[in-house]
Design brief:
Length: 584
């Protein structure tokens, strides 16, 4: 642990002790020690080795011992116990800019407040003014701090965070002394939204890596810069943690900081059952047993790490602390779908409705992707805000597509479809006689979001039962970080889809990722067929299918679970037979 990290922990101890109402002088001693360590010009390791810690100002025997433990073991049981004794709400309150432990304790003692929400409410009701040492100004400051907190703690879409993370990793890999550089955390697990970016690096010249990282042009603020960890905030508000580890530690750190926390807990338990202790530092005999930390096990990859514990490799997307470790023990992992498995996509828009590229441009875009087919599904007339088309206009588009295919204007074959609105009563927005002419129909809800769950579910199921319905579009209508989905019983919808041979899309627009990954494993086991659709409104949007692959992998889906991994001939035949079967 470096000076900065040790100082940070000492400072936290001071804060936690004050929160607990401990002797103020005892608490302040930690703060003083933190400053001493942080400002130390000598090498801390040397000072410790020579037993000179107690020579430093403000550091007695007890503190010296704690600092030594932090330096050598990289942890301090006293600190961990102390932190664990602080209610989670207090830790949240501490994040509010300008609100210190003394005020938090005062507010708790007087009003019993221990959460941000409760504090906000109390401020708005003017309850803090009455307390000694508080005033109207304090209330205003706290409210401003809370607003700031919300702004800064904003999460980000995976797509955007990943783009940035990949750029930084590319830059790191160009540095000569860097031997390993990988993205970890929720980005690597392909979560739908991202709190912060986590990077793990091993390098021969660590100082140079930190200098480079903290001075890239996108950095707005260096929040911390140390020998082993630096944190920056980028111009868009995104926060990035970079951890520097030794070569031997790399894969343990990569695994640990990939998480999730829940997965890590299960992995540690698995190790313990083998009398081993697993952490970001390595894998070795459990503490207390012979040779702790002395004879660590070395691994050259994450695969090896899992293997040492008798486990099959667990893809990062599955590390959510569900049953992945148990499945890995039995060694029966499915082969998850990959980007290259996709042979075409179905939900796409053109300039005929609210898309930005023409039919021809979209089809050529599909060629560029190396696909065999692309489906065009412009909006239907109720979606007037999106330039929705009526039967007559759609029929013209259909003729255009037929001509396009005849003339072979693109290598990829174009399927005729529509994204048909589901009306409030569950009926479809277009005449049956017209829907029958199309190769497929995506059914979606775009209006009247305020029905209760029962009504909304009924509405969706009625649409699913329509003989022309082929694919359910964005099942909950959620917009990540913007709007909750409408209320709908997704499990009932899944059952109805299976019963009616309707497929469910993974809408791969990075803001939708709908149906959510959490439903897919069970749904696919039951027999729900998946289609990964980019919902592209221009050629570039076709690339969103990759975000859909993330969702599918997190949902344990294989190539067989996803319809658009099939080749053109098979898809044509399936859609044709389906229509005949359903009399659509
Ligand atoms: P995020 O950033 O909120 O989208 O989610 P993560 O998963 O990237 O979380 P983050 O950045 O706080 O930490 C990265 C990983 O480090 C996390 O997935 C697991 C590991 N980790 C962090 N803190 C702890 C902890 O207190 N206990 C355990 N077991 N693991 C932790
Ligand atoms: Ca993170
Ligand atoms: Ca982090
Ligand atoms: Zn839509």
């Amino acid at each position: 642990m470096d000076k900065q990290q040790i100082a940070e922990i000492l400072e936290n101890i001071q804060v936690f002790l004050e929160l607990k109402g401990e002797n103020v002088f005892r608490a302040r001693a930690y703060q003083r020690a933190a400053r001493t360590i942080e400002g130390l010009e000598e090498d801390l390791g040397e000072v410790i080795k020579e037993g000179r810690l107690t020579d430093l100002p403000g550091i007695g025997k007890d503190l010296a011992q704690k600092i030594e433990t932090l330096y050598n073991d990289k942890r301090l049981p006293f600190y961990e116990e102390l932190k664990a004794s602080i209610p989670g709400g207090f830790l949240e309150l501490l994040e509010i800019p300008g609100l210190g432990p003394k005020k938090i304790k005062a507010v708790y003692d007087a009003l019993g407040i221990k959460s941000v929400t409760a504090l906000e409410k109390a401020c708005k009701e003017g309850k803090l003014e009455a307390l000694v040492g508080f005033g109207k100004k304090t209330e205003e400051n706290i409210l401003r701090g809370i607003a700031h907190l919300a702004e800064y703690s904003k999460r980000h879409l995976w797509w955007e965070a990943n783009e940035i993370a990949e750029e930084i990793v590319k830059g790191l890999k160009r540095i000569k002394s860097v031997t390993h550089a990988e993205v970890a955390g929720s980005i690597r697990r392909k979560r739908e939204t991202i709190g912060d970016i986590d990077l793990i690096v091993a390098a021969k010249n660590g100082a140079h890596v930190m200098d480079w990282f903290t001075s890239i042009p996108e950095v707005e603020e260096v929040i911390g810069k140390g020998e082993t960890k630096s944190t920056v905030r980028l111009k868009g508000g995104m926060q990035v943690d970079l951890r520097l580890v030794s070569e031997d530690q790399f894969y343990f750190a990569l695994h640990h900081f990939t998480g999730s926390k829940e997965h890590n807990v299960m992995m540690r338990q698995k190790a313990l059952a083998m009398d081993l202790s697993l952490s970001e530092w390595g894998l070795g005999p459990e503490k207390g047993k012979a040779g702790h930390l002395a004879d660590k096990i070395k691994v050259k990859s994450e695969e090896e790490l899992f293997k040492v514990l008798g486990l099959k490799y667990i893809p990062a997307e599955l590390r959510e602390g569900l049953d992945e470790v148990t499945v890995a023990e039995k060694g029966k992992f499915p082969k998850l779908i990959e980007e290259d498995d996709i042979r075409g996509v179905f939900h796409n828009h053109t300039t005929a409705s609210d898309g930005r590229n023409t039919l021809e441009e979209m089809a050529r875009g599909a060629d560029e992707m190396g696909w065999e087919y692309i489906g065009i599904s412009d909006h239907s007339k109720s979606s007037f805000q999106a330039g929705g088309l009526d039967e007559e206009q759609l029929h013209k588009e259909l003729l255009k597509i037929q001509k396009h295919n005849e003339k072979k204007l693109s290598k990829s074959y174009v399927f005729t479809g529509v994204e048909c609105d589901i009306l409030k009563n569950g009926e479809l927005d277009l005449k049956d006689s017209f829907l029958k002419e199309l190769d497929y129909v995506v059914v979606s809800i775009h209006s009247v979001f305020n029905l209760d769950e029962k009504e909304m579910t009924k509405r969706m199921i009625k649409a699913i039962e329509h003989p022309s319905a082929t694919i359910i579009g964005h099942v909950t209508g959620r917009l990540l970080l913007q709007r909750e989905g409408y209320k709908i019983d997704v499990l009932k919808v899944i059952d109805a889809a299976i019963a009616n041979e309707v497929m469910m899309e993974i809408n791969a627009n990075p803001r939708r990722l709908d149906m959510d990954w959490r439903y897919w494993k069970k749904a696919a086991e039951k027999g729900l067929m998946c289609v990964i659709n980019p919902d592209a409104h221009n050629v570039k949007g076709l690339g969103y299918y990759k975000a859909g692959i993330n969702v599918a992998r997190k949902g344990w889906l294989t190539k067989e679970n996803v319809f658009n991994t099939r080749g053109l001939k098979e898809v044509k035949k399936y859609l044709f037979d389906l229509k005949k079967r359903k009399g659509g």
